[in-house]
Amino acid sequence: MLKDKAAILAWGRRFLPDNMDLTESVWQEANVQVTNYIRGKGWELLIIWAVSFAVFRALGLQFSLLISLFVGLSVIIPYIGVTVMGFVMALIAFIQWGWSGEFASAMIAYAVIQIIDGNLLAPLLLSGVVNLHPVAIVVAILLFGGLWGLWGLFFAIPLATLINAVLKAWFARVEHRGDPA
Predict the structure, then answer these.
(1) pTM of this prediction?
(2) What pLDDT score does 111 carry?
């Protein structure tokens, strides 16, 4: 395939239209937005990891670094990751402390971290990097999660940014055509 790259690309171009301006515009916009989304998720992951580590270490939870790493990674899959890590967190805290005030403190701290992440950090951080309103992000997660389950949750924001890029390019083209200049 490396040797015949030019021939393969020429063959594939036969099936594409000559004017690819709209497609290239959508591709560039989607590429920028998905890259920004990945960067934003990376920042969210790091922030949640650091805050979780500080809180769990202050509470005296064993394996704080490892648990906080997985809490940070859990933000990659909205809702499901948080729920699964909630059970893991409860199990580890219960094994360490049993039914006690420390157990309750650890669970409350985990809940507060997740509430702040889900309701403040993620919508503000991701809406800023992908140029989507926080409500659009929540609607995308609910819509695509309802349509395709776990995979819909995982790809909700990239799909929403793709739809946004298509709509922006399409409306820009309509406005350009309607312009008498």
Answers:
(1) 0.71
(2) 93
